[in-house]
Each structure stands twice: as C-alpha cells, then as structure tokens.
C-alpha cells in the first residue's frame, strides 16, 4: 500500500507537468484546430532561457523564471503571426508539417548554443530536504511543482471564466462565425492562444527543470508525451487536458512500478502512455471529455 | 489530326485513346532514355556515390508508399519508418533461409498486415486522430524492438548477402549489385503505383480523401478503403525496408525511429504530395541537403569556429531540414514536382509560349 501510494504521488508530480503542457496544447487546438508538434521545443526553450537568465546576468531565480515565461509566450505569439497565419485554410497535413518543421528548426537553433549537448541544473533556490506526508517522503521541489501547477491552473480557469479576453477566446473556440459577427477578432484570439500555449509550455519546462534538471532530449520528449494525455482527456477539452495529464502521469508511474520487473530491460514508463493512446483511439476515440463529432449529410 | 510525336495538349477523343498510358511517342522515348540512363549511371559513379543513389531510390520507394496513404488517401502517417522497420526485420530474419527475392516481398506483406492493423482506428476517426495513432505505433514499435532479444534489443541484426545466380556479391560490387535489384523493384512498384489510379480501388482512395460521405453514398466503403490505403502504403515501406536491410548488411533500430518517419513526410512534401516524380525528387533533394550540410559543417569547423559543447553538424542538419519544410510549405506547397511540371511544359511547347 505504501509502495502504491508512493507511486501515485510521484505520478501526480509527473502528471502535473503533463497537465500543464497539455493545457497549452489544447488551447491551440481548441482555438485553431492546429496540432502543435513543436510543443516540446517550447518547453525546452522556456527551461533553458530561465537557466540562461539565472546564470548569465545572475538574476534572482524568480525574476529569470518570469522572464522565461514572457519570452516563450512572445515566441508562441510570433510563431502564429509569422507561420500559422499564412496557412489558414490549408490542408491539415501542411499545418502539421509546418509545426514539425518548426520543431526541427528550433532544435537546430538550440544545438547552436551550448545547451544542446550536456545536462544542466537550475541554481539552488530551495532548501534541502522535504516534508513527510502520511509517511511518504516529498521533496520541496516536487511540492513546489504541484503547487505551481495548481496555481497556474487556477489562474487560467479564472482567466477563462472572468476576463473578457478569456471569454472571447472561449467564444472563438466554440463558434468562429458567431464570435466574428459579435465583434471578436478571431485572428487576435488565435495569436493569444499561441501566446498562452507558449506560457504554459515554459511553465512546464520550469517545473521539469526544477525536478529533474535540464536536458534537451528529455525536455523535448515531453512534447510527445502530451499526445496520450490530450487524447485520453479529449482533444478539445481544457479540463480533459488536466485530468488526462494527471492520469497519464499516474499510469506511467504505476507501469514503471509494477510492470518493469516483468519486462526484461524495463522502461515501460516510456511506452505505456502510447499503448493507452492506441487503446483509447480504438475504443473511445474522443477521449473522456472530448466532444464527439457527429456528421450528418 | 493526332500527331503522335508532337502534342501540345490532350487530344484524346474516344475511350480507346483514353485508356492508353502514353499520350505520345515522345513520352515512350523519353521514358526509355531515362531507363537506359539509370541502367548505365553506376558505371560513371564512384562506389560511395552509388551508395547515395541506392539510398535515394530506397527512400523513394518508401515515399511512394507514403504518397498512397498520405498523398492519395489523405491519411497522415507519422509511422512510415516503423513500417519500413517491420519489413527490414522480417527480411533480416528470413535472409539466412530464403533467397532475397522471396524475403523482400514477404517483408512487404508482413508490413502490409501490420499497416492494416494500425489503420483500424480509421474505421471510426479521421484526420488528426489517425496521425496520432500512427505516431503511437511508431513509438511502440521502437520500444518493442528495443526489448526483443530475438532482434538483439535494437542492435545490429546481420543480413547475409551471398550470391545470386552464381554471381558472387562481395565487398566491391555490393552497392552496384543492389542498385540493379532496387531498380527492378522500383520499376515494378512505380508502374503499379501509376496504374493504381486507373483501378477502381485507386479512384476510391481519392474519392474518400476528397469527401468520404459522398464516397459512402456512391457505394464505396470509406473504412475499408482507408484500411487498404494503410496496407498498401505499408507494403511499399516494407519492400523498401527489406531492400534497405540487405543494402546496409545489418538492421539497426536507429534507422527506423520517429525522425526517419518525419524525414519521409518531409521528402513527400518537398517532392510534391501524390506525385510519382516528386517521390524521387524529394528524397534526392533531402538526401543531398543532408550530405552537403555534413560537408558544410566540416568546412566551418576547419575555419576554426570551434566552440566547446557545440556540434555544428547536429545543429545545421535539423536547422536546414526544418527550414526547407517550412519554406516549401509556405512558398511552394506543390513541391519540386511543380518546378518539374513548369520546365516540362516549357519545353513541350517550345519555341512558343503556349
């Protein structure tokens, strides 16, 4: 039981990263029906820029984290303005391939910096040790990660429930024609969705960096883990993204804890989310909270 | 008047003419010249250049398959390299006991079966969901091979070459020999690809891509058609994989990872989706780009730009690769095929403008 709880807790920690990353992913999909394959690269850029600000000009960590969030959000905004805006109305494959191409370009750019090759860790800003919760050991870093995720989710849901911009974004996601006729600038909302996605990507990058250190390959691979999370939760559901992310994190850790011993070589935590993805697509393709597309002639 | 040597347009006036493959003698002659040129080409190239040519043609076969699934049927496939891997591993396992002329097509058939299974979600979902199913398959395939003792955990599974009709294939003539084998497979597969569109199955693919509800109303089964598209595309990939296994003399999992699948998609797009010529222009372009970036980064390194911790080759390759994809999609979405088409139509009507 103790073992199970420990797995679930660490699963929630990992899952909160996925949830954050998936949130931005779903924002883009809901607004503009674009699947973003460069999400992992934004996560990496967020994490590495925070590292850069913290070690280069020696800014306090909170300030550099804030700068990283702003920078990545701006990058997301620019991406939409420069590339995606030109592709409105193009076939899906073009849009997907542009994000894949962008991912490759960003990868190449990061390899031009020293960040491409080796591992880094954020400067220490937390005290050592942790707390004992019901007999389970939790690092301060892990606690902070969960707290940070919760804070972000609360902020985002407030933004969507209360602010005019947030309501306009939801309106665009719901019905573009209707929101256009009511004076909402759909274009602006697309760009805003990408900026918000950049923001959440950077946030998850910060969390990963705090828990596990910075490695380009590991950071970008989170961009792939987002897919099982969003499919499980439903591609167009924001709450689904959070639930899906947490579930994938927990299931991944449970697989690692119980299945690794059965498989020679281990490493089930990597493949298990993708198995879930396939199973969900077979039996419940629109996920837990996604809207089913019903076609009528 | 039907002049079979010079034609400025399509002058087919009855069904009999419409079922002919070649519109003019000029097309027949140019195709024959192309084939003769391809047959003679290795004689003028060094051993390493023949290898590059081999790779381009093998990738061309895989991209042909992708052009069925993605180009004709419009199903985005981010797992073509995994299908190629299925063919490669099948051929590698069969190679000690079977001649390659059997092992390679068997690899294709196994890959086709796997492709149909992966395509099962297409019975219920469309577009993006399908793309993610192929992505999941790609990752699961790589992981499974990495954990299979039979396949050496993704390490090198060696493929014996041996001899063919008393012709000993050794180190010196290995790439030349496989060049001609590839050419034979290529011609058969390309003719089949071209003729697919002339069958009801091929036309069903396009109908389902353009409007699956209308196709359904016309009596085609969209689900089955999509499954068939997956199986056909995977078959081509499997053949390419089988040949690749023999060509490389060993199968390693690194050649069949997600990056390769993305590479095939990029090749198809750069060449021009759903076109025969583009299926070879794309691989040639991307492969030469890759090689030139290698040379360029060596050159930059020799100039003394040597920052510690920065590998120029591993930066330049993805950078140019991604840039090519993005630029083509934004400025020439019809790919290199469009340039080829423009050049051809210029010469067809020369010296007149049109």
Main β-sheet of chain A: number of strands, strand sense, barrel status?
2 strands, antiparallel
Portion in beta strands of chain A:
under 5%
Q: What is the structural class of chain B?
A: mainly alpha
Helix content of chain A: over 70%
What count of domains describes the coordinates of chain A?
1
- Proportion of beta-strand residues of chain B: under 5%
Mean pLDDT of chain B: 86
Quick tags:
heterodimer, A: about 300 residues, mainly alpha, two-stranded antiparallel ribbon, 11 helices, 2 strands, B: about 350 residues, two-stranded antiparallel sheet, 4 strands, globular
Question: How would you describe what is shown here?
Answer:
The complex is a heterodimer of chains A (297) and B (354). Chain A is mainly α and 297 residues long. Helices cover 72% and strands 3% of the residues of chain A. In chain A, strands 1-2 form a two-stranded antiparallel sheet. In chain A, strand 1 and strand 2 form a beta hairpin. The N and C termini of chain A lie far apart (53 Å). In chain A, 52% of the residues are buried. With 354 residues, chain B is mainly α. Chain B has a domain of 214 residues. In chain B, helix 3 runs antiparallel to helix 10, helix 4 packs parallel to helix 6 and helix 12 runs antiparallel to helix 13. Chain B is globular. Classes of the chains: A mainly alpha (297), B mainly alpha (354). At the A-B interface, helix 4, helix 9 and helix 11 of A face helix 6, helix 11 and helix 13 of B.
Summarize the structure.
The complex is a heterodimer of chains A (297) and B (354). Chain A is mostly helical.
How would you summarize the topology of this molecule?
The complex is a heterodimer of chains A (297) and B (354).
Chain A: H1 2-32, H2 39-55, H3 61-82, H4 92-112, E1 130-133, E2 136-139, H5 140-162, H6 164-174, H7 176-181, H8 186-212, H9 216-233, H10 238-258, H11 268-283
Antiparallel strand pairs in A: 1-2
Helix pairs in contact in A: 1-5, 1-8, 1-9, 1-10, 2-3, 2-4, 2-8, 2-9, 3-8, 5-6, 5-8, 6-8, 9-10, 9-11, 10-11
Chain B: H1 15-18, H2 25-40, H3 47-72, H4 80-94, H5 100-118, H6 127-146, E1 157-158, E2 163-164, E3 167-168, H7 174-196, H8 200-210, H9 212-217, H10 222-248, E4 250-251, H11 258-271, H12 278-302, H13 312-331, H14 336-349
Antiparallel strand pairs in B: 1-4, 2-3
Helix pairs in contact in B: 3-7, 3-10, 3-11, 3-12, 4-5, 4-6, 4-10, 5-10, 7-10, 8-10, 11-12, 12-13
């Amino acid at each position: 039981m103790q073992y199970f709880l420990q797995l679930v807790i660490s699963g929630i920690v990992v899952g909160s990263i996925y949830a954050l990353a998936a949130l931005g992913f779903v924002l883009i999909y809901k607004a503009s029906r674009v699947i973003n394959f460069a999400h992992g690269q934004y996560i990496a850029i967020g994490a590495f820029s925070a590292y850069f600000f913290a070690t280069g000009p020696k800014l306090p960590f909170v300030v550099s984290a804030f700068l990283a969030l702003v920078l990545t959000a701006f990058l997301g905004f620019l991406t939409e303005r420069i590339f995606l805006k030109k592709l409105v109305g193009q076939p899906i494959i073009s849009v997907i391939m542009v994000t894949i191409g962008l991912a490759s370009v960003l990868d190449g750019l990061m390899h031009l910096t020293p960040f491409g090759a080796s591992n880094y860790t954020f400067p220490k800003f937390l005290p050592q040790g942790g707390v004992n919760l019901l007999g389970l050991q939790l690092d301060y870093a892990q606690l902070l990660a969960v707290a940070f995720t919760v804070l972000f989710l609360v902020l985002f849901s407030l933004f969507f429930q209360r602010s005019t911009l947030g309501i306009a974004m939801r309106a665009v996601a719901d019905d573009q024609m209707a929101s256009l006729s009511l004076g909402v600038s759909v274009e602006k909302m697309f760009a805003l969705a990408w900026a918000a996605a950049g923001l959440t990507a950077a946030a998850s990058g910060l969390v990963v960096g705090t828990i596990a250190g910075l490695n380009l390959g590991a950071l970008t691979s989170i961009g792939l883990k987002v897919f099982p999370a969003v499919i499980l939760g439903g591609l167009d559901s924001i709450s689904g993204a959070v639930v899906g992310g947490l579930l994938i994190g927990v299931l991944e850790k449970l697989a690692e804890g119980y299945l690794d011993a059965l498989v020679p070589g281990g490493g089930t935590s990597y493949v298990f989310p993708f198995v879930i993805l396939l199973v969900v697509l077979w039996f419940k393709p629109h996920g837990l909270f996604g809207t089913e597309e019903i076609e009528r002639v | 008047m039907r002049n079979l040597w010079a034609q400025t347009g399509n002058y087919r006036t009855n069904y009999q003419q419409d079922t002919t493959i070649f519109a003019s003698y000029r097309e027949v002659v140019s195709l024959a010249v192309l084939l003769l040129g391809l047959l003679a080409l290795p004689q003028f190239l060094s051993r390493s250049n023949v290898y590059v040519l081999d790779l381009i043609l093998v990738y061309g076969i895989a991209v042909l398959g992708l052009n069925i699934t993605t180009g004709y049927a419009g199903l985005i496939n981010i797992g073509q390299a995994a299908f190629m891997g299925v063919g490669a591993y099948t051929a590698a396992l069969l190679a000690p006991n079977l001649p390659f002329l059997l092992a390679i097509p068997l690899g294709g058939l196994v890959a086709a079966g796997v492709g149909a299974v992966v395509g099962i979600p297409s019975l219920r979902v469309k577009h993006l969901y399908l793309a993610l199913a192929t992505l999941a398959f790609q990752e699961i395939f790589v992981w499974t091979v990495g954990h299979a003792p039979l396949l050496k955990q993704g390490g090198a599974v060696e493929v014996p070459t041996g001899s063919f009709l008393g012709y000993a294939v050794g180190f010196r003539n290995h790439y030349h020999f496989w060049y001609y084998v590839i050419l034979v497979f290529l011609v058969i597969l390309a003719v089949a690809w071209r003729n697919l569109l002339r069958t009801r199955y091929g036309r069903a693919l396009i109908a389902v891509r353009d409007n699956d509800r209308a196709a359904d109303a016309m009596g085609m089964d969209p689900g089955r058609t999509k499954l068939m598209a997956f199986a056909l595309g995977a078959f081509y990939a499997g053949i390419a994989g089988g040949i690749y296994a023999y060509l490389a003399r060993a199968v390693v999992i690194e050649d069949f990872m997600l990056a390769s699948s993305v590479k095939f998609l990029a090749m198809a797009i750069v060449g021009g989706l759903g076109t025969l010529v583009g299926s070879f222009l794309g691989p040639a372009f991307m492969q030469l780009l890759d090689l030139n970036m290698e040379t360029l980064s060596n050159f930059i390194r020799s100039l003394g730009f040597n920052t510690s911790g920065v590998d120029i080759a591993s930066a330049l390759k993805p950078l140019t690769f991604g840039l090519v994809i993005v630029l083509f999609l934004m400025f020439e979405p019809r790919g290199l095929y469009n340039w080829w088409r423009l050049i051809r139509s210029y010469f067809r009507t020369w010296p007149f403008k049109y």
